[in-house]
């Protein structure tokens, strides 16, 4: 298989976004695998792949990808929230609550506050 150009990786990333929006998580993962292989530092691609893993109930790969994102961006509230959802779905509620609370502390969105079990300030 010939090596893909950077333009093809951008096209694959955008196509993966569309596939995920259409709820074709496995198709999105397949496209993102080549993007991440070529650009392992691409946090946006990793976050998108983590979301696709979560949507397709591949919880351990989702957890690992969210952790990579958080190693690079520890203040990413969405990644904390999504990791919390992943852990919660894996039956690890205590670990999930920690990430929900970090998400809520970083960005007090109602969903994050509710998951963190903080009172809504409104």
TrEMBL record:
<dbReference type="InterPro" id="IPR011990">
    <property type="entry name" value="TPR-like_helical_dom_sf"/>
</dbReference>
<feature type="repeat" description="TPR">
    <location>
        <begin position="77"/>
        <end position="110"/>
    </location>
</feature>
<dbReference type="InterPro" id="IPR019734">
    <property type="entry name" value="TPR_rpt"/>
</dbReference>
<protein>
    <submittedName>
        <fullName>Tetratricopeptide repeat-containing protein</fullName>
    </submittedName>
</protein>
<dbReference type="InterPro" id="IPR013105">
    <property type="entry name" value="TPR_2"/>
</dbReference>
<dbReference type="Pfam" id="PF07719">
    <property type="entry name" value="TPR_2"/>
</dbReference>
<keyword id="KW-0802">TPR repeat</keyword>
<dbReference type="Pfam" id="PF14559">
    <property type="entry name" value="TPR_19"/>
</dbReference>
<keyword id="KW-0677">Repeat</keyword>
């Amino acid at each position: 298989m010939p090596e893909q150009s950077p333009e093809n990786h951008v096209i694959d990333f955008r196509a993966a976004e569309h596939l995920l929006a259409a709820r074709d998580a496995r198709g999105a993962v397949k496209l993102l695998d080549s993007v991440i292989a070529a650009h392992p530092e691409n946090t946006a691609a990793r976050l998108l792949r983590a979301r696709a893993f979560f949507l397709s109930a591949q919880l351990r790969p989702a957890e690992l990808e969210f952790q990579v994102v958080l190693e690079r961006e520890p203040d990413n509230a969405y990644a904390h929230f999504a990791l919390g959802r992943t852990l919660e779905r894996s039956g690890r509620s205590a670990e999930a609550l920690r990430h929900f609370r970090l998400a809520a502390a970083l960005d007090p969105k109602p969903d994050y506050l509710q998951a963190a079990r903080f009172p809504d300030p409104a």
